[in-house]
Every structure is written in C-alpha cells, then in structure tokens.
Amino acid sequence: MKKEFLASNAKFIYSKNELGYQEVLDRFGLASEINIITFNISEKQNSLINALKNVGEDCAINIITNIPSRWEKYYGDSFRNKARQKINLYMSKLNPEKIGVDSAVFFDFSNHGKIIMTDSIIYVGSANYSEESANNTEFGFLSEDKELIGFVRTEVLTDIKASAIPY
C-alpha cells in the first residue's frame, strides 16, 4: 500500500542537540488533538510524556508506537528478559489512565514511522518522540497545511490504528 499527498507548504528541518519538532510541542497547550506515531519513547526520560499529561482535559491524545526489542521468537533468557523489561516499561509509561482523560495508546509492531502533530501543525521526519532524539542528527518537515494534517489524520492514522493493538 502507498498513499501520497503533495504538500505545498512545508519547511525542512535539520536538527542536532535540540528537538526538530519543538514547534509542535509548543502548541500542545492550544491543541484539541495530539497524534504521535513513533518507533520508540525514552526509557529513562519523562519530560515528553509529562508534556502530554499537562495538556487540557479536552485534548484527545493518540499514541501509536512499536516496542523495540520485541521479537517474534526469543533466543535465550537474556533476550527474553530484555524484551520483557521493555514491554513492562512501555506498559507502565504509556498507561492511558496516567497520560490523560481522553488518551488512547496503540502498539504496532511493524511501525517505524515518526509523526508528531496537533490539529494545527505536523512534523514528519526521522525523530522519535524521545528526549534522546534531541542528541541525534535528525531530518524532517514541519507544516501547518490543514489539508495535509487532515489527510494524515483520516488516511494514515486510521490505517495504522486499524492494524494496531490497543493498550
């Protein structure tokens, strides 16, 4: 499957030592909807998860993530134990009851995408929703294009949520 959208109003972001999607984070407080598709979250850092906890009660939050280190078959106790630790960490950090009143979390074990968006701005790029991404060299696009945001919400998010496992 392939879906395309030609965006005419986007800016390219190259970031190192800061989050390339900071403009999206800055709008969390004004958002009525936040959608995050990420490969992973921070294991030891909590500020980005806490940013979600601080949005208004009327803000709908959707998080779709993978659980890195989760394999179909586990070879040996050390791999099995590492995977179990990661699964337990994600289940604890992403518990919808801890994030917000109107939040939903999904796991898609084939997901490697990275999208962070509100109802007014979207980041699509290489950065995960993790503090560690600020230290990496990352690339992406930021846009306020309402049609692009609507396309991602209705076409992309709907598809991914349909094949994901709810929390």
Note the overall shape: globular
Secondary-structure element series: EHEHEHHEEEEHE
- Binned, the helix content reads 25-40%
Q: Can you count the helices?
A: 5
C-alpha Rg, in Å? 16 Å
Beta percentage is 15-25%
Description:
This protein has helices at 22-26, 47-53, 77-93, 96-99, 146-163, and strands spanning 10-15, 33-38, 60-65, 103-107, 115-118, 122-125, 138-143, 165-166. An eight-stranded mixed β-sheet has the order 1-7-6-5-2-3-4-8. The two termini are 25 Å apart. The chain contains five helices and eight strands.
Summarize the helices and strands and which ones pair or pack:
Blueprint: E1 10-15, H1 22-26, E2 33-38, H2 47-53, E3 60-65, H3 77-93, H4 96-99, E4 103-107, E5 115-118, E6 122-125, E7 138-143, H5 146-163, E8 165-166
Features:
8 strands, 167 residues, 5 helices, single chain, alpha+beta, 23% strand, globular
Would you kindly provide a brief summary of this structure?
By secondary structure, this protein is α+β, with helices and mostly antiparallel strands.
